[in-house]
Write a structure and sequence with these properties.
about 260 residues, alpha/beta, Rossmann fold, 2 domains, 11 helices, about 50% helix, about 15% strand, binds magnesium ion
Length: about 260
């Protein structure tokens, strides 16, 4: 059967994280938060050291809370949402006024800075561009579907490496509000490429349970792109009919 569309996961499918480890991930977030706080402090005297520490404490506490919630509910709580939550919780109105009224832009900027350290670490696999080029020549529609709490991070990275051109759409849990494997986000991705009723003629290609399980629930063809690094607490895939590949270039043998 001719393949009409492919949904690609982002992390460890199209891109990899340099020298990946859980510690390195966490360190990126710690440094990112410090940079966001510096930005806050640059806004004026109300944002003193004491305020920054209080902000960091609340942010980390809320982030952990919402992370656990997202595992339970499969809802995404974006970084912008968490910043807003902390703002509403601890920031006085006169301070908010100092932002000049445009809270949304301000919160987005904080989230951009928060993810900036992480953003420096993601790079495409060497075979990614060539594979996308070949698939594009076959007129296969392609979408990126990522569980990520900040939409701009994924958009920026695709643009930075000039890969955005190959994709009909970029969908993130941050923007959609639900995380893979929730089938709604997969249906949404298929509808975006007008293949909502042709899931069985489309491939999901990703490196983990959430990708395979979600694709399975909507009736897609399943490709697990096997990752070398194993994260702690990873969920085993409880579905049988998927194909395992080592890199996305192997998809070219199937389409
Ligand atoms: Mg992934």
């Amino acid at each position: 059967m001719k393949i009409k569309g492919i949904i690609f996961d982002f992390g460890f499918t199209l891109f990899y994280f340099k020298d990946v480890s859980l510690e390195k991930y966490l360190d990126c977030y710690t440094r990112g938060l410090q940079k966001s706080l510096q930005h806050l402090q640059s806004m004026g005297t109300s944002f003193n050291n004491e305020f920054a520490q209080k902000f960091a404490r609340h942010f980390n506490e809320r982030r952990n809370f919402f992370f656990k919630e997202s595992l339970k509910t499969k809802n995404e709580y974006s970084t912008i949402y968490i910043f807003k939550h902390v703002f509403d919780l601890i920031v006085e109105q006169d301070v908010i006024n100092a932002i000049n009224g445009d809270e949304e832009i301000f919160l987005r900027k904080l989230a951009d800075i928060y993810h900036s350290c992480e953003e420096e670490e993601w790079i495409p696999f060497e075979h990614t561009r060539h594979t996308l080029e070949q698939l594009n020549k076959k007129n296969i529609k392609m979408v990126v579907l990522s569980n990520h709490p900040h939409h701009s991070t994924i958009k920026n990275l695709l643009k930075k490496f000039e890969l955005d051109y190959y994709f009909d759409d970029v969908i993130t849990s941050a923007k959609f509000g639900k995380r893979k494997p929730n089938p709604d986000i997969f249906r949404h991705a298929l509808e975006k490429i007008d293949l909502g009723d042709k899931a069985n003629e489309c491939i999901i290609c990703g490196d983990e349970y959430a990708d395979i399980k979600g694709g399975y629930q909507v009736g897609m063809q399943l490709f697990l792109c096997k990752r070398e690094y194993k994260f702690p607490f990873e969920r085993e895939i409880d579905i049988e009919n998927y194909i395992t590949i080592r890199k996305i270039s192997e998809l070219l043998d199937y389409v």
